[in-house]
Amino acid sequence: MNLFNSLEISASALSAERQRSEVVAANLANAETTRTEAGGPFHRREVVFRSAGQPFGLTLANAVNGGGGKAGGVEISDVIDDPTPPIMRYEPGHPDANQDGYVAYPAINPVSEMVDLEDSVRAYQLNASAVSATKQMIQQSFDVLKS
Amino acid sequence: MSNAIPGLGSIGSTGSIGSIGPGASMPGATPLDQTGSTSFTGVLSNAVQQVDQLNTGASQQISNLLQGGNSDVSSVMIAVEKADVAFQLMMQVRNKIVNAYQEIEKMQF
Amino acid sequence: MSDQAATISGLESFLRLTSLREKAISTNMANVDTPGYHTQDIDFQAEFNRAISTPQGDGENGGMMQLEPAAREVPGLMERADGNNVDLDREAMAMSQVQLQYQLGIQLIRSQFHTLLSAIKDGN
To answer: What is the CA radius of gyration of chain B?
Structure first.
């Protein structure tokens, strides 16, 4: 419903951040996975954000002229595999070792994944505050009719 | 306040209600017509129409909002409140007019 | 003043549908861990348009013979391993939205009644 469009914008951001944190969590969990169904080590995954809806400038122009138009939120356009080649470690006794005794490990740096996770959490908090603020504004506009 | 509700503003500026005379001194009033009825009636019905318009406009904005149109909550609230306040003002003015009429009736010559 | 009456009946339908949607959302939230449960919702806009365009009952049965809105599944939600596709973010957002809608409806109805009452009381 168009009634609370601004809430939907923040909702899209919350959803996108949550999905991003899920992808980061999957990366962290699989940091040492050498064997996957597709063969080879786990590939680090990344999300790509994209702005949804029309650009804000257009929405503002429409609003000033009395028209409509949905202002944008954010959406996840793609979950891509990181093309970085896997890290090779020399472990001849490992069941997944190749002929030279090297095992391919995913190129996942836990520290950078944790930074991404913090980032995602912070963005989630910010958007949740935006939702709170929007709700407060709407509720205060109801006070016009009180008394 | 009288800017937002122009019809009622002109009622306020007509001075004392007792002077129901020629309409030439009243701003925006219609001239005295042949049947002798005063232009004050014109002003009053104009005001009533404007209040009605505000009311209808507010109801339309509400249904537009509920049906998912593009109006936003604050402008609908303000429109509803404007209509309500205009209506209250009109009620008070009407009460004053009725009281004044009754006062005049009580006068004995 | 018939404006008031029409708006009031429109707002009545609005509030009724809002509280029905609130029930659907609570059900979804309660079933967040149920295996195989799919999110249910009502198409608020369509149901509202239907409610205001059908004439209300003629008072014999109190005008309450309205068709129940159809609950339908929400498309586009991702299913987890246990078959459950409830997205808590979406449900939480829908819950705030529904609460705000309800408050909006109540405030608007109060103002309609306020105008009617001040007409009845003659401005006193």
So the answer is: 17
Residue B105, phi-psi category: left (phi > 0), alpha (psi -120 to 50), beta (remainder): alpha
Interface test with B, best of C16, C45, C97, C108 (most B CBs within 10 A): C108
Task: List residues bridging with A104 in a β-sheet.
Answer: A88
User: Which chains border B (3 or more CB–CB pairs < 8 Å)?
Assistant: A, C
Chain C touched by B87 (CB under 8 Å): yes
Whether the predicted interface score ipTM is above 0.95: no
Min distance B39 CA to chain C CA atoms (Å): 25
Question: Chain A: nearest CA to C45, how far in angstroms?
Answer: 7
CA distances from C14 to B59, B80, C5, C62, C99 (A): 14, 17, 14, 18, 12
How would you write the pLDDT of chain C (124 residues) with one tens digit per residue? 677 888 899 999 999 999 999 999 999 999 998 998 999 999 888 888 888 887 654 444 444 556 677 888 888 787 888 888 888 888 999 999 999 999 999 999 999 998 888 888 886 6
**Domain assignments of chain A as residue spans, ordered by start:** 2-31+45-81+111-145
Determine the structural domain holding residue C82 and report its residue range. 2-120
How many separate domains does chain C show?
Answer: 1
Nearest Cα neighbor of A30 from A18, A41, A46, A17 is A41
Chain B CB contacts of C119 under 8 Å are 87, 91
Interface contact flag, C96 A7, Cβ < 8 Å? yes
